[in-house]
Amino acid sequence: MKKYKKYILIGSTIIGLTLFYSFSSETVLSKLKTLSYIIRLVENYYVEEVDLTKTIDGAIHGFLEELDPHSSYITSDDFKYMQENLNGNFEGIGIEFAILDGYITVISPIPGTPSDRAGLIGGDKITKINNKSAYKITQEEVFTKLRGKKGSAVEVEIQRFGLPDPLNITLIRDKIPIHSVIAAFLYNDDTGYIKVNRFAKQTYIEVKEAIDSLETKGMNNIILDLRNNGGGLMDQAISILDLFINSNDTILYTKGRIHNSNEVFYAQKNKNDNSMPISVLINRASASASEIVSGGLQDLDRGIIVGETSFGKGLVQKQFSLDDGSAVRITVAQYYTPSGRLIQRKYEDGLDEYYNNLLTTNREANDSSLVNKPKFKTKKGRDVFGGGGITPDIYASNKINFLDKTQSIITHPSRLIFKYANEIKNDFNISSKKFNKQTHKNKGANISIEDFIIWVNNEDELLNIQNKDIQEDWIYLENRIFADIANALWGKDYYYQMLLKEDNQFLTSLEHLNDAKALVD
Known about the structure:
Strand content: 15-25%
Structural class: alpha+beta
Radius of gyration: 26 Å
Number of helices: 19
Helix content: 25-40%
């Protein structure tokens, strides 16, 4: 029966495509017949049983990859997950977790969710779910067992460090928000920091609320962190950009082959437009909607851009839902920043080169290849470059090359830094303000490197860490430990605030806020 269903699927697909192309291209018709014949040959002669649904999905992926790097086919399962992320919520208990030592380990409860209200903390291990062992559970099983309909109950057994007996907690599932703004706080007396990790349906509202809240606390400057933000919904990027533009300038336009893919987006001058100096942090993983915001602010001389040259995704996709619950995203246009820059990088050399180029090629402002890039002018006459991402006004890099043993600790599957932080967090039972001062004054001396090495080697004797193996990177490692301690004691904002102390790109942005102020004077 399965075999006949496969043939019905293949046959109807081929017939539909044949009818669609029969009046336009004999070559395409011939290729479709060839494809149909190859499918029959594979079904009849291939050495093993073939999952044709999976194989045809692969063929669709390959077909779209021939167009460009960003046209894509999304299976029904992946599409459901992606919709949750864009819509901004799902139903469950609300934890960030990792599977450590075979158990679900709470990294942090999401504020305001059932796990937060029940008092779960970072480091808690979920050992049972509904009286059944959770040992060696897979990530897919975690979603299946902990997510569920709002109002339904799930019982969990928690093993907490320092307690002799487990805790039994009943959690009532609820809607769990997936936030775009993952940190927002005052770094100092008047500089606010807002980190946005994606552009979803509520991103503009979240950013606006964060700005309004920080303004009441005395914020006069904004550092907007779009690093590692791969983009999302274009309309959200346009709304956020418009928030800072007190004019009716063009903030984005798109060009495509079909008529309705050609659009021009203008700023809407409003008395509520924000006039604060703004600096935007970007890196090589800042793409798409992140480049719309950073490129627009740069072109209109509204803010300064600090960091690394961004990814270079200037293609606009339109999404089409398919009958089986899957979807396809097809590039329909290219987008251009206010000065006329196309941000899309070249991709004619294939996908491998397209992505590897980010790591192997010097794309920064001191790169002589800028001579060959198209040059444009900002609103006030500054030079900016097209042809491959947003080039920052001020280049700054963060350390990414560590000693081998440091790298082994950072990337260890047991999350050694997180685990150590949770073991020693009670040694820092002081206020967050005192903690902040103490960790700033005595860098590298607040935590014993010798004690840390002994603990790490007990956790994984194969590492065989010695002092000389990590001494050079110790200030960085200590900072990471402190960040996880801050997260466990006071929450995510304190985690990011601690990381920023050793974040060269952020500190460079802080040093150059006067440049941002000069643009709005």
